[in-house]
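Pipeline run #58 for the internal structure catalog. This entry was flagged by the ingest filter as a single-chain record with no existing model, so it goes straight to prediction. Upstream metadata was stripped on purpose; only the residue string is passed forward. Reviewer on rotation: M.T. Logging verbosity set to normal.
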Amino acid sequence: MPFQIVIDTSVLVAAARSRSGASFELLRLFGVGDTRWQWNISSAMLMEYEAVLKREQHRQGRDLSEVDRMLDDVAARANRHAIFFLIRPYLTDPDDEFILELALASASHYIVTHNRDDFRDAGRFGVRVVSPGEFLRIIQ
């Protein structure tokens, strides 16, 4: 059974900035159809991905259509979930609440992020918070 994960936007930004790190490798694995894990998304998550990634692409002077193509692929192949419940307020950063809610709704094993401190209380719900590098080591 594949691991269920939610990927925080910080991982996508890191992948957009460097093709040599664990964040980019995680996205590369998704692109080639790695079956050891499945990406879980919601409408709110996709909207955040789009806003943040397009801002990053614009800042770097890159073509915004790259973001559209990548997000179209994610939307087509990731597991989509509607969020019908709220546990708020629970985390210290209210902007991250929907990520924890998605992890719970999707029965995800992991939240993959570079901002581990923002999700330090997720463990109370049985969700582990790991960096992209840690997750790559887990699936190997």
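catalog note: The CA atoms of residues 53 and 94 lie 20 Å apart.
catalog note: The radius of gyration is 14 Å.
status: ready for reviewer M.T.
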